[in-house]
Amino acid sequence: MCALRHLFLLASGLESKITGEREISGQIRKTYDEYNHLGCTGDLLRITISRVIRASKDIFTQTPLGTGSVSISSLCWQKLNDLGFDPQKPLVFLGAGEVISSLVKFFHDAGYTRLLFVNRTKERASELSAIYGGDALSIDEFWLYREKMHLLISCTGATEVILTAERFDQFFEAGVAPEFMVDLANPADIDEAISDRKYVRMICLAEIQEVAVKNLQLRRDLMDQCIPIIELHERELQDELRVRRVEIAMSAVPESVKEIRRQALEKVFLKEFNQLDESSRELMLRMLDYMERKYISVPMKLAKEVLLTNIDVN
């Protein structure tokens, strides 16, 4: 039961690093499908995963768990979108890691087309430009860049400041410095001294994280609303598994009934059956077909009813 509860909590994003993370259930489904394709899963696991995914959907639809963004990329997009940037103005992404790759999707879907991707290695920047359009530069090429920038967003894995005050001043003197900058890196990519310039607005990671922390705490406070939903699905899953065990145990019944029919027609009553006229034999076969179907379905139905009645009583 502990492992089962953990699976329910995990799929619903209640045990992930970011509470309420929706992508977990999709990852579980994808993993199951891959192993199922390889023939490594069984019938009971199929039922369990299906129930776990349903529980996850119910939690996100019946509670506010999924509301309130907590990812850095989504929060950054919301903040910048609220500021009302013009999609036709040039946008620079400094870095090509997971955060930038996630963030650029928002801008691309919103119609931003003048994109410039800058990375330590030009190859990775080119990969993003191939997907979302725009241009790509290596970091060394970027320092010589002399086209007007409007918004610059940086998030690299560098261990020290990349965009120093000196380099920024060179951009400013050339008339191409960005008017807005966002530093999502930890440690920072952009020299903090640049934020003192009156002609530039800078948003730092701490400003974004402050909102994320508040949203995350709100999600954690909703745990008490989620547990009853999980407990309901756990009980329903146990019922499903018990019924499925009965179905598996009785899976030999259809073949047994077919064998009884075959023996009756080919051996026990062969002589009498052959003495019947054609219409009588046709009627007899139709009767046997009907009896066979009922003899297979009725015991299965009764077994399920008895099992579920006992479950309700208990």
What does it look like?
There is one protein chain. This protein is of the alpha/beta class and 314 residues long. The chain folds into two domains: 2-65 and 222-313, Beta Polymerase, domain 2; 72-216, NAD(P)-binding Rossmann-like Domain (Rossmann fold). Helices cover 62% and strands 8% of the residues. It has 13 helices and six strands. It has helices spanning 2-11, 23-37, 43-62, 72-83, 98-109, 122-132, 139-142, 165-173, 205-220, 223-249, 253-268, 270-275, 278-313, and strands at residues 91-94, 115-119, 135-138, 151-154, 180-183, 201-204. It has a six-stranded parallel β-sheet with strand order 3-2-1-4-5-6. Helix 1 packs across helix 3. It is elongated. The model has no long low-confidence stretch (mean pLDDT 85).
Shape: elongated
Biggest sheet: strands, sense, closure?
A: 6 strands, parallel
Main structural class:
alpha/beta
Average pLDDT rating: 85
Report the span from N to C terminus: 18 Å
Q: Helical proportion?
A: 55-70%
* Name of the CATH class of the largest domain: Alpha Beta
Named CATH topology of the largest domain: Beta Polymerase, domain 2
Number of domains: 2
Please list the strands of the largest sheet in the order they lie side by side: 3-2-1-4-5-6
Number of helices: 13
Order of helices and strands: HHHHEHEHEHEHEEHHHHH
